Amino acid sequence: MLIRDMSDSRLTDAYGIRYQQVYPHGGEDLADWGLGRAVIPPGGETEPHDHHEEHEAFVIVSGSGVMVIDDETRPVAAPSAVLIPNGSRHQLRNASATEPLVFLSLYWPPAMGPLDL
């Protein structure tokens, strides 16, 4: 059994926000899939970026925001999940001036199978 502490003290700066690589614990180079926990402070946002070698899903745990994927922009709020196909430029913005936006990031290679869109 593997149990990881996901308290705020485990967060570090990454992607313009606070982030913790949960699995694989030793870093993204250990596996082609992974799970991370992220916190966007009030009014904050992730750096716009893309992943050409992996799909990603954001599971919004608490808070609300604005999700931008390529040229599409939509509001998101907990509880919800967002699927981000590989190669898509994306950014998540916290819409609140007072509450953090917390989400889990899951990523995996396209070779693991097609997306169900």
TrEMBL record:
What keywords does the record list, in alphabetical order?
Aminoacyl-tRNA synthetase, Ligase, Metal-binding
Enzyme Commission number:
6.1.1.10
> What's the domain of life for this entry?
Bacteria
Which InterPro entries does the record associate with it? Cupin_2 (IPR013096), GPI/OXD (IPR051610), RmlC-like_jellyroll (IPR014710), RmlC_Cupin_sf (IPR011051)
Q: Does the keyword Lipid biosynthesis apply?
A: no
Q: Which part of the chain is the Cupin type-2 domain? A: 38-107
Membrane as UniProt keyword: no
One GO MF term: metal ion binding
* Name of protein: Methionyl-tRNA synthetase
Annotated organism of origin: Streptomyces eurocidicus (Streptoverticillium eurocidicus)
